[in-house]
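Supplementary Methods S3. Complex input for the pyridoxal-5'-phosphate-bound model.
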Amino acid sequence: MRFFAIQFEEFMTLGTTRSTVAYFSMEICLEQAIPTYSGGLGVLAGDTLRSAADLGVPVVAVTLLHRKGYFVQHLDANGQQTESPVEWSPEQVLEAVEARSLVTIEGRPVHVAARKFVVKGVRGHEVPVFLLDTNLPENSEWDRALTDTLYGGDEHYRLCQEIVLGMGGAGLLQALGYDDGVIYHLNEGHSALLTLQLLERQLDGRQHFQLEDADLEAVRHRCVFTTHTPVPAGHDKFPLDTVRKVLGDERVALLEGSGGVYEGMLNMTHLALHLTRFVNGVAMRHRDVSRTMFPDYLINSITNGVHATTWTGPAFAELFDRRIPEWRRDNLYLRYAVSIPLQEIRDTHAVSKGILLDEVKRRTGVTLDPNVMTIGFARRATPYKRADLIFSDVVRLAEIARNVGKIQIVFGGKAHPHDGGGKELIRRIFAADERLQGLVEVVYLENYEMALAHLMVAGVDLWLNNPMKPLEASGTSGMKAALNGVPSFSVLDGWWVEGHVEGVTGWSIGTPEAEGDPSRDALDLYIKLERVILPLFYGLPFAYAEVMRWAIALNGSFFNTQRMVRQYVHNAYFPDSLPADVRVEDTALL
Ligand SMILES: *Cc1c(COP(=O)(O)O)cnc(C)c1O
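Predicted complex, serialized as structure tokens:
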């Protein structure tokens, strides 16, 4: 393994791979004090950059500043969500850069400035992140607000934001001197208009009717795309009238000529699919689902991960430092968790659990019992994630708790301000808590974000995940839990199709088929909790600790962004740096 690490660094410094990867993402979770993300996509982006910095990969990233942040969530006694803006001052945490770029929106010039954040790796390598900002005196009032609100506003506002991100971002990088040999990575379709910018550079003054296949190929050669959305409705698209008004006829014609217009709309996924040379789905199952949606494209799968040293809580980090000190530099060493004594796994988890229960007490006044099976469920509150599935039959749940073993459940998750279904879901959890009358203790922690996620994924005994299939492209919080020895109990979708070994790394809910029967999931959840998980937890605690240990050794060692970034480097960014016979075009071989 050491040998591999050395070879890898040589790849990075020798000849062919000296070009830079420019990573574009609408949201990036950089640190607690910078609220420029809403959920999984942003956390993945941040973890990707943290691992790229650790590995010394030459990456630069572009996102929007989101001056108004993503909101603070408040919940009243009935679980009714209200929102308030996050107070943060970009001026205080981020330095301004001098470079500027210019985009044209509805014929107006819009000036784009940027602030810089630097992600530092374990060995000091730096990944600069440029957060684009249109709040400049030379812009109109309306244009100044374009980099204010993440996923806010209407379609028109979103399109303008995506122009700033894709075209403004590409322009800024050019102004900063990143140009020759840059490989562009589009993290989701939001930034797909950067391909339009590249195409215009390629055309160098020629018109859309002079567009040739070779021009498209030249752009494609420099671009890599990761799609995250498993249903057609989820893909970003804009009515052509709006696009025409905002970008003008010539650009619409170019977009038509480059495959971006689909069913009469500008479709960002189609644009990205058509103008990139490597398309990635974020898990094997998601690759298969995406291939069904887009049969004309070869879609690969490099499965998502999480940044191991960020998401391992202090208790397990201390244990790993003592037992397998190489784990920080090379996450593969987590495989050797198999030799950690089970008693140490149990003791370490008890520390993480204590920290979470203290925080629950501090925030809610509720005292949870450290000896009781504690289930965690936290992610964006939106209907397909079915946070309330475990309450489908509260009588049954209460019976299980009474007859087999006590249960307490800790929830977290924000609903998007416009997601009425998500807000309703939170209210239903509060209502279920009322009906359970303490037979199962339920708490919902407000304002789920990075710091709270840290405590939750490490402090519970079981991480529950039961979205409607096949809507979970990957899911990542179960990977964070695994690093802390917390097994998942999840439907077989997203990463869990790969991470799950029944009774070894955790447990499944429902059938393995891509389109399972959703009505069976609740039943299955109860049966497995009643007959397998609770009896193991209460009756055979060391056997339960063995599952915890496998979660670390098998899943923690693999589902991390260090492995993921290495795969992107070798399979997507710089495939030519590998000898032809070991080049992996399609990671089904993985
Ligand atoms: C990890 C994380 C998510 C994403 O969780 P999923 O399981 O992928 O849905 C969302 N929000 C926060 C704050 C996170 O840390």
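The chain is about 40% helix and 15% strand. The radius of gyration is 24 Å.
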